[in-house]
Amino acid sequence: xxxxxxxxxxxxxxxxxxxxxxxxxxxxxxxxxxxxxxxxxxxxxxxxxxxxxxxxxxxxxxxxxxxxxxxxxxxxxxxxxxxxxxxxxxxxxxxxxxxxxxxxxxxxxxxxxxxxxxxxxxxxxxxxxxxxxxxxxxxxxxxxxxxxxxxxxxxxxxxxxxxxxxxxxxxxxxxxxxxxxxxxxxxxxxxxxxxxxxxxxxxxxxxxxxxxxxxxxxxxxxxxxxxxxxxxxxxxxxxxxxxxxxxxxxxxxxxxxxxxxxxxxxxxxxxxxxxxxxxxxxxxxxxxxxxxxxxxxxxxxxxxxxxxxxxxx
Length: 313
Prior knowledge:
With 313 residues, this protein is an alpha/beta fold. It has eleven helices and ten strands.
């Protein structure tokens, strides 16, 4: 399996960085967890670099439109992708992409990991994960489950859950976690499976009811919420990640600088506390570690997607 990073020549010329405003492309609609992370990083990096760092939400086609913009960008570190599992999921979900998913990007840093959390509107009458299973079995396909992206990690994770436990729901795809959450709050859908950090405040204030998280560990942000493995899905475990990627030919010295600076931002006590209270787990990996994650996830998710029969084109 080819890696997603193209080797960089050791004698690549050094370049001043950042030489102009930096763009962070978020390939989903505003308001979700990816958007929150990108804006936190943009503010802090702008202060550190004495340069403007702009967050641009480029939603559509399950994140491939925004990813394509970064793949086509100059490999100078000035255009970055706030990415996650979608980078590898889309390689199996789409027959054709406007970029080569195996070679278009190189990892810069895995910033955070997070559970996905299953949440419902309080007036649904569902209080526990077992209640949810009972409802979906009693009325197969009736429950409207919003997805923060067709074919995204939430879609794949719920398909894994559905196949393990024999349940059926009606998937309603959205261009990001923000719009899905707004429709859930408005009572237009019944539930969503979403990155925890997108809904922690709504759970704490009782506007949404959290049933279970997908990781094998509970979140420190919402420790009362059980894992799916604890609540009735033995062995179930899915952890999502978010971080920065760059065009594959971006010089190693620029990648190393961005990695160091983002890691320094994430190490700031106030920033770490803000992210962890939202439901993220700060990891601040090396660029190489993110490249390894990308390479390992390609075959892993390809097998799940093929087994579930999920296709987008």
